[in-house]
Task: structure prediction
Amino acid sequence: HSNKMKNKKRYALFLIVLVVSLVLHTSFVLAAISNVEVVGSAGVNGVIETEDAISFTATVSIPGDTDITPDQLIMGSSQTFDTCSKVGGEHECSLQVPTSGKVVFDPGPLPYTITLKSDSGITNDEHTGIVYVDNKLPVIESFSVNFGQVNSGTLTFDYRVKDYACDSSQCNNKCSGIEKLELFEFNNSFAQTFLLNTNSCVVDDSLQIPVTKFVDGEHTVFIKAYDNLGHVSSENSVTFTLDKNAPFVDVNTFKLVDEID
Result:
């Protein structure tokens, strides 16, 4: 009987130790920097301009700490965050660099480290990341007109545009993305803006424009691209002659007709 009681006590003690271990392990795992956003004045996450101010926003949590303060979050070796506020079960902390105005950054990758500490100064979590300093304009790599759908009343403009943050190989596939394209003629007879709002660094696509937007004759249509930081590409252009009344082959009946239906 006494052996059974001893075994029960040992088993109960084992369970207590196991529960305490699980609580400690869970507390360690859950203390975290769960999300970090880094934006400049244009509001693009992870990409800033060469002259800019950077806003860091970190979402953090420490089990048992219901009042995380800015001095518990460290940028680099010593710079503490500006503010922390409770949002749900976590805290959202922010840091502005510089505190006012703007500073000049070298183009290319700019690494940073954020450390989350307990009230007693113990490191609970660390986040390392890179913000890219963008000094490059987007580039129109190709631009052409396709008459394949002109019989159905549409001109198709094929284009390829590329955006990138810097010349370093570390900036490969890093950019702010393409916000919009502008197509226009210098005589103001045609102008149209196409919103892309993409974070892709390469866009290879086409634009369909009604033939009725153009009068018969020769046209030179220009294209410009804007990235999400507001950088504007150099112009590219295509020249073509449009005759909407010229004979063409009706692919459905294989008959020659002398005007567009």
Observations:
- Residues 8-29, 248-261 have pLDDT under 50 and may be disordered.
- The helical segments are 2-30.
- The two ends are 103 Å apart (CA to CA).
